[in-house]
Amino acid sequence: MKLSKKKFVADFTRTLHERFALSLEDSSNYEFYMSLGILTRAYYAKAWQKSTEQLKRNQSKQAYYFSIEFLPGKLLKSNLLSLGIYDTVAAGLKDLNLDLDELANYEPDMALGNGGLGRLASCFMDSLASCGLPGNGNGIRYNYGLFKQKFVDGYQVELPDSWLTSGNVWEVRKENKAVEVGFGGEVYLVPDGSGGLQPLYENQEILRAIPYDTPVVGYQNDIINQMRLWSVEIPLREEGKYLTVEQRKAVEDITAVLYPDDSSEAGRLLRLKQEYFFVSAGLQSIHNYFTSLGLPIEDFPSKVAIHINDTHPALCVPELMRLLLDVNGLTWEKAWDLTVKTLSYTNHTILQEALEKWPIFMVQSLLPRIYQIIQEIDARFVAEKTPQVGPTLVRNTRIIQDGVVHMANLAIIGSHSTNGVAKLHSDLLKNVVLHDFYLLYPERFNNKTNGIAHRRWSQLANPALSQVLDETIGTTWRKNIEDIALLKAYREDDEVLKALHAAKRHNKERLGQLILEKTGVRVSPDAIFDVQIKRLHAYKRQLLNLLHIVKLYLDLKGNPQLAMVPRVFIFGAKAAPSYDYAKTIIKCINEVANLVNHDDTLQGKLKVIFLENYNVSLAEVIIPAADVSEQISLASKEASGTSNMKLMLNGALTLATLDGANVEIRDAVGEENIYLFGLTVPEVYGYYQRGDYCAMDYYHADPVLQKVLNAFVNGVIPNIQQEGHVIFESLLNYNDEYFVLRDFASYVAAQAAIEADYQNQRHWTQMSLQNIASMARFSSDRTIESYAADIWHIESKQ
Ligand code: 26W
Hints:
Elements: H1 5-20, H2 29-58, E1 62-66, E2 70-73, H3 76-83, H4 86-95, H5 100-104, E3 110-112, H6 116-130, E4 135-140, E5 148-152, E6 155-159, E7 172-173, E8 179-183, E9 186-191, E10 197-202, E11 205-217, E12 224-233, H7 245-252, H8 269-292, H9 300-303, E13 304-309, H10 316-327, H11 332-342, E14 343-346, E15 357-359, H12 360-366, H13 368-389, H14 391-397, E16 400-401, E17 404-406, H15 407-413, E18 418-420, H16 423-433, H17 435-440, E19 445-447, H18 454-460, H19 463-473, H20 494-519, E20 528-533, H21 542-558, E21 567-572, H22 580-597, E22 606-610, H23 616-622, E23 628-631, H24 643-649, E24 653-656, H25 662-669, E25 675-676, H26 681-690, H27 695-701, H28 703-710, H29 721-732, H30 740-758, H31 761-773, H32 780-792
Parallel strand pairs: 1-4, 1-13, 4-12, 13-14, 14-18, 18-19, 20-21, 20-23, 21-22, 23-24, 24-25
Antiparallel strand pairs: 2-3, 5-6, 7-11, 8-11, 9-10, 11-12, 15-17, 16-17
Bound molecules: ligand 26W.
């Protein structure tokens, strides 16, 4: 949009006055931030209304991305960037002695997600709008997001994330789009008078679902979609039934807080309530919108595509059936045909403990009609498939089995597409984890390698690098990321290499400042910034990283004069509150950090920084400063990873196992621009087949490993009496589930290669350039365009 600095300043001071009746002098960051937010909303209001009206007028097919998690982070800067007024606003504020960065930091992170899955959903929202595709989010408006993490004596402590305390300037409460969601009670099928049966409900608890729409502003294309998040309320007419605080709390709890687990199901009834609540509310509002178009229900799949983001929204299958059967009165066959055509599913993990299985008694008591429909789906599946493929395969794939409802099976059987999130992961789904389903529905399986919203992770997070790109290859890359490959031509250009190195150094100094403020530890920008930022999980092997750090520490203690390129190891990681082993690793990392950072004999050669409360906004400061990107999961366990792509875009070199999307990063940059190590997937599966992995052998065979592990139990690392033994035993007595000892030697060798190469600054920066220039395929614009073309069949409006 066209906006002059003068106009902006006038609009801003007027808004401040109108909203708060305050002058600039008497205002604080709160008023400045809210006024900026309100003004920004006013700037995109017309485009938002026009976008919505155009879709209705053209009756365009739309996609709806159902996700129980969204992780947008902060929105002010990205909205200003997408409106094309970022620089104007920054300059206007400067004239008023205000700093956009400072005001932007006033906004709380919208942290309604745990990690990869939630952040991917938000990157997808940005790409849908920026590619002009009619796609909307559907989720839950938690009052409390992911817990805030504090370290107390090295231990993780969780604090509530009350992100709505001072209001959320971006959301719009859509009272008139509210719907009702029913729980519990009994349901009887009674004749509907035309030979069919219809459900009769008794004693159902009816709750109100209120939608809050947050606009998703496309990148300088006047396209605005929305993310609809639902909040629960007690219907006015039902108020009389909720007199006690407990009764009211039981209702409000449904959308009160995000479950902080990101890899093992909690199995709590409240979580099941959350899953049904946003699914039913979302589907009802879409069904109401479709009905308002006045088209025959048979056209539903040609106007609506609904995506199930992992198993958490899998109740979309029976809920859509319920609407088509009980509201539209369709036959089962017709309803089923429309349901399968409308729905699609993405799997994000192969970890068994993460695949949701809800006990029948829970589903039946909470959702009696839904359970009836699930039973019918299961029965018809068994009846149809047994003659075709035999009882064994049916037993392995049916939905209801051993007293539980297998949500992944429900999602696969009830949709027309199942995709993995990286080539390796999608192959594992087809050939191993979901092989029986692949035999049943080969045409449904496909791959959609993840991507990232490069606008946020380069233009917003790394203005220094963005400026070097503008000055080197022009600015077209900002609109068309494919053009970033133009940088490849400058691999031998000393000026460009110097400029890239200077930008990285600037970002390392910026992070160094933050580290000093938050931890009191001073780090040198000359050191290698080695970064591992992701949820704390055993399969991601933060422990392997720690064992190497302890090795370096022991090397330096053994020989303080050791010529070693200074290194700063930076960790960011939250552990699910109930995940004790992960919390034990956090304690150990903090105690090693404490030991190393205060040992002057190390002459500053080694620093370990564990930054508290890792989230989207912290990632935006850490990632531009990274030299090394730790992607060291046990091969086959990390479905894709996305921090690997963000770090690559920002010029870090990847230290990786051939797991998830690391394989495709290797394909993109070439073996000579990445550091690979460790077991491959076939080797890991070889061990599983043979069952002959013995971690103890690697301990006995490697004196370095012995010294390192013994440090966890012999007091060399202080203050981990209990935790050190837990780690020691998990590796030697419980046989090291994630092959940490097996991959140790090759990991250490790869780290040594990094140290050697880093000393050749020009060559290092050339490799960094190659990574930046090769990242276009990891843009979520590319990912979303393939979802739109292959799965959702929606067209761009631009
Ligand atoms: C039921 C508890 C629960 C909650 C969240 C189980 C599983 C999840 C998510 C699926 C976990 C997750 O975030 N998976 C990550 O998804 C990313 C986006 O596709 C991938 O890049 C990561 O590899 C994958 O671990």
